[in-house]
Write a structure and sequence with these properties.
Chain lengths: ~625, ~250
């Protein structure tokens, strides 16, 4: 402990490692029956902005006999000191070394943080490979959106949670507690027990097969290993745990505010969006419940900003009513409300405009593609008129800039689509110059951010390829050249090799684990932070393993080709994804599920309102 | 409007909390405690908090001062109790008292601060090294500017230094100018000493404003420097302040 106090004095931004924040939970770990580390493979300021971690922290600590603490990745300076002084990576609350916990659970949120997981295990004194862990080592589990293709991480994890963590975690903890009481310390006996919980994937109970260098199948090796592994989902969000005592960070974190979760899932059906598929079905909280939660969260934390979060907040069925009641509750209380993740239409921007008070900020609109044809391909159901109207409203409402999100390299994209993108931005920039008033001179009115499309698992575009590196850069250069000609427009693009890496890791199979480990050994750490990033380490690691990027980034030839994530089921049928992929290529729009059920296989009967969810218990997973 | 002066500590690991973090924390704690904060007027209203003197990162504070405006009168003891029920023990409030809202805030009055740096184990030959500092006519340190680094002579800001020797540790007391007319910090003073060892701990013991007759320093509570230092078992004379080279080694 004293050592750690000394370390704090010699690292930058020590508040990252201080703990003891308001509402953080401090207990004596000795009195806990099960000691759980909630690990986030990124810096404190990123991890503390993540809602999932906050939900699990509140949930686990509300269960009797359980003590859950947080652990984040140390920055390079602390890592160096820990290594030199042989101090193991420690938890934030009780400063317990990572290898002294019963269970260490990682949030899997972003592919580029995979090497940070290895580095946290290593610094925490836990053997990297689950097969090398002994009876005194913790069990390492992973959950979150990337657990839907866990294969590249399988050797490092004892098991994965597929689906909503708050549904499964209590069962895992109960199983662990009774296993621990039995006094048998054989790791495998626990893994076989935990494998029986629906939604749990224990990779060591399966074997992978390849044919001609290509992934062929995953075979279960034990009777406890189910195939496929079905995701778990909270059926009644209204009754599920939500943190009302957010930990209040001392330092400024990325999203330094309180959060309300309006609903989970999304009914839009954008074909590129993994979250839109894996988080189905849509489950809402009632406006009354949200209003109560908002009041308590602000009272318990003192936060001055409250974000109304979801995958597409303006789709919330009672958004107007909710905003009216929150504005009433927080009048003169110096709480600002924000509405992220807006649909690109005027209604959404108007709702966001209602939240404005005091300082004008920016508004983000995501048309995603530049032409109607391409927006039809991706099922982004907004027209050019919608986008122009939304931008006009945003500028009239006094926002000082508009941020536009697009994707590059979408399936079927041609240079015409990019020309369309430039044209659309041009129209918005004229709009701005005509109507925009009061924005700072010289600051850009329009920020255009162009990311690279990545064909993600469990989406209709899983049968598409990532654009070649050279072509990505060629198209980015075109946009840079053309957008530069427009006044008041700033352009930002994504690093092409980072997109390549993300695609490889998102689509990888079990063989990729050796590449991740090699990249880690070569010095790869927090790859998401530019200053530490180097693609050459990954190239070297791929070469050592005798593999190519292409193996993972080019599309399969047939719909029937086995995919490394086929044994994980989101509840959506493969037939539906195939149908959606075909419809994309035919430029057919699939309506919002609230308007008409597209028959994806979830079987929710459009059970979106909390009333219907609890009354009908409309969806059940096989 | 009602103004309260809060005296709190900043101890242990919380020395690493930056001034901005501390400000943000107090605002949230006051809001959480449901205190009737008065806000500034204008486009972007902010609660009216005034810290007497920001404390550099790494230094603990024995007596830190914060002044806050409320729109309603509160019981001082209740303010203290309510804040302490939320704050970590290392940021505990020692006292709250109502003060004249029309008077100047401490931040505009503070002139000096009293620090102690503890070297453990003791530094050999520290006494002549400190004496040497006094011999130099110019004491320049480098300060980071926005674009370029500046060299600043801090000799005028070092009012006095006192050294207490003990077998197990050296205590270097520093009485330094601080506030809006310029000042220096313990780290700058220590950087002038040709020693390798870092102090194990640096504490700020108190802050000082000008006394009534203008030529002496007093704490916000009215203690003179000699009363204050007697409380620390440090034997100095009032006249030693400001001009005289240190005698009280």
């Amino acid at each position: 402990m004293k050592d750690i106090s000394r370390l704090l004095a010699s690292v930058s931004r020590p508040a990252r490692y201080l703990g003891r924040e308001i509402n953080s939970i401090h207990r004596d770990p000795k009195h806990a029956e099960v000691h759980l580390a909630l690990a986030f493979p990124d810096l404190y300021e990123v991890g503390m902005s993540h809602l999932g971690l906050r939900i699990l922290y509140a949930l686990a600590n509300s269960l009797p006999g359980i003590y859950a603490e947080r652990v984040f990745a140390p920055a390079a300076d602390l890592e160096q000191l820990l290594k030199e002084q042989q101090i193991p990576l420690f938890s934030l609350e009780s400063r317990t070394p990572l290898n002294c916990f019963d269970l260490v659970g990682f949030t899997l949120q972003y592919e580029l943080s995979y090497t940070a997981i290895l580095f946290m295990l290593d610094r925490g004194g836990i053997p990297l490979h689950s097969s090398n862990r002994g009876n005194d080592d913790p069990f390492v589990l992973g959950g979150g959106p990337l657990a839907y293709n866990p294969e590249p991480l399988t050797p490092f994890f004892d098991f994965f949670v597929i689906g909503d963590g708050e549904e499964v975690l209590p069962e895992i903890l109960q199983t662990y507690r009774s296993w621990k009481k039995k006094g048998l310390r054989m790791r495998e006996s626990f893994l076989r027990e935990v494998a029986l919980i629906p939604g749990i994937y224990v990779p060591s109970l399966y074997r992978d097969h390849y044919e001609d260098g290509k992934f062929a199948a995953i075979e279960p090796l034990a009777k406890e290993a189910s195939l496929p592994v079905h995701k778990r989902a909270v059926t009644d969000l209204e009754q599920s745990v939500f943190p009302e005592c957010f930990v209040v960070p001392y330092m400024e974190v990325v999203h330094d505010r309180a959060v309300l979760e309006l609903f989970r899932g999304c009914s839009q059906g954008c074909r590129f969006c993994q979250a839109g598929y894996v988080y189905r079905p849509v489950r809402e909280r009632s406006a009354e419940k949200l209003r109560e939660q908002a009041g308590r969260i602000i009272a318990n934390t003192g936060f001055t900003e409250l974000s109304l979060a979801s995958l597409s907040s303006s789709d919330y069925s009672a958004i107007g009513e909710l905003i009216t009641s929150l504005k009433e509750d927080f009048a003169n209380k110096h709480v600002s409300l924000s509405l992220p993740s807006l649909r690109a239409d005027a209604y959404a921007v108007q709702q966001a405009g209602r939240l404005q008070q005091g300082r004008a900020t920016g508004v983000t609109i995501a048309p995603e593609a530049g032409t109607q044809r391409l927006r039809d391909v991706i099922n982004k159901k907004v027209t050019e008129e919608d986008v122009l109207e939304a931008a006009a409203v945003a500028l009239q409402e006094g926002h000082n800039h508009v941020k536009l999100y697009f994707m590059l390299g979408l399936p079927t994209e041609t240079m015409e689509d990019l020309a369309g993108l430039v044209e659309l931005v041009g129209k918005i920039s004229l709009l701005g110059r005509k109507r925009g008033k009061g924005h700072k001179k010289g600051s850009p009115l329009i920020n255009v951010s162009v990311s690279t499309f990545i064909p993600k698992a469990h989406t209709p575009f899983q049968w598409e390829s990532l654009l070649e590196q050279k072509e990505i850069m060629h198209r980015q250069d075109y946009l840079l050249r053309e957008l530069r000609k427009l006044k008041g427009v700033a352009f930002a693009r994504h690093n092409a090799s980072m997109s390549l890496l993300e695609a490889i890791l998102a689509r990888g199979d079990r063989r990729l684990a050796a590449v991740i480990e090699q990249a880690y050994n070569l010095g790869s750490r927090l790859d998401a932070w530019n200053e530490n990033y180097s693609f050459s380490r990954w190239e070297e690691a791929l070469a050592t393993a005798g593999m190519t990027a292409q193996l993972y980034t080019s599309r399969p030839l047939y719909y029937s080709d086995p995919l490394p994530w086929d044994h994980i089921s989101t509840g959506i049928t493969k037939e539906f994804l195939i149908k959606e992929h075909r419809r994309a290529l035919e430029l057919s729009i699939t309506p919002d599920c609230r308007a008409a059920c597209a028959g994806c296989g979830i079987g929710c009967k459009v059970g979106i309102t909390p009333q219907s969810a609890s009354q009908k218990a409309g969806y059940r997973f096989p | 409007m009602h103004r309260y002066r809060i005296i709190f500590v900043k101890e242990g690991d919380f020395a690493c909390l930056s001034h901005l973090d501390l400000q943000r924390t107090f605002i949230r704690v006051l809001r959480r405690a449901g205190m009737p904060l008065a806000y500034s007027q204008g486009f972007n209203p902010q609660p009216r908090l005034s810290f007497a003197a920001p404390l550099a990162v790494g230094i603990t504070g024995d007596r830190e001062y914060l002044e806050i405006d409320f729109f309603r009168q509160l019981d001082s003891e209740k303010i203290k109790a309510d804040l302490n029920s939320i704050l970590p023990a290392e940021l505990a409030v020692r006292m709250a008292q109502e003060i004249d809202p029309k008077g100047p805030v401490l931040a505009s009055l503070v002139k000096a601060a009293f620090y102690v740096a503890i070297f453990s184990p003791p530094v050999p030959e520290l006494i002549p090294l400190v004496k040497n500092l006094y011999g130099s006519s110019v004491l320049e340190v480098e300060r980071k500017g926005k674009k370029i680094n500046k060299r600043v002579d801090i000799k005028a800001f070092i009012y006095n230094l006192y050294l207490q020797n003990a077998p197990e540790e050296d205590k270097l007391f520093m009485f330094l100018a601080t506030g809006n007319l310029g000042g220096t910090r313990p780290a700058e003073v220590i950087s002038l000493l040709p020693i390798k060892s870092e102090p194990e701990k640096v504490r700020r013991l108190g802050i000082f404003i000008s006394g009534n007759n203008g030529d002496e320093f007093i704490t916000p509570e009215g203690e003179t420097l000699s009363t204050f230092s007697n409380g620390l078992n440090l034997n100095i004379q009032d006249s030693a302040i400001r001009t005289q080279t240190p005698t009280a080694y």
